[in-house]
Amino acid sequence: MVDRLLAIGDIHGCLTALELLLEKVQPTSRDQVIVLGDIVSRGLDTRGCIELLMELQTRVPLLCLMGNHEEFMLDARDDDIACGSWLYFGGEETLLSYDPEYAEARIENVLETHWEFIESFPDYYETEHEIFVHGMVDPDLPLTEQDTNEFRWRKFEDVRPHISGKQVICGHTSQKSGLPLNLQHSICIDTNACRGGWLTCLDVTGEVAHQTSEAGEYRMLDMNTIVED
Ligand SMILES: [Mn+2]
Which domains does the chain possess? Predict the structure, then answer.
């Protein structure tokens, strides 16, 4: 048994919000932290976010899941066309963070240890009562039988409970309200951190959400007050 199950939504290079979030939540070796993917792209400091998470993993049980932006980045590594399209979707900011001058976006600058870290991300994580995933799941199929692209790409739309009966906790579909979308059987915690919204850490066990912004703000939400049908 862990003290707290903690899920962190789409970080997208927002190092200020991530640092403040970890300072507020103070994860320990008795917690389990799951980062729901899309750590990279768009925000100013992907490199810093990856470094911080790699360091945190040395002292806290931490698992990062594969998002569609990690998929973009891995595809860009060996393919100029894929790299060109990723640059347009936020990859440019990612690669600039690997240049000390923040001037040149060169994929060769990404550290080998960072590639290995990103390659290790699985598509989902399951506990006895929860499924953690970046995108979404097909509600009618067991996880082992579905198209794995769903895990990284499927949007949080027309959501129904998963056949397993487990609660699904995901990111990917940005909530412009800045609030997690809490359907109880499924919760989306991409709260638009990189576009003036919030970075969310859902404490599944405590039924609260901690949120921070790139502007240095912090707030806590009672998940039971934001339930939607
Ligand atoms: Mn995504």
Answer: 5-225 (3.60.21.10)
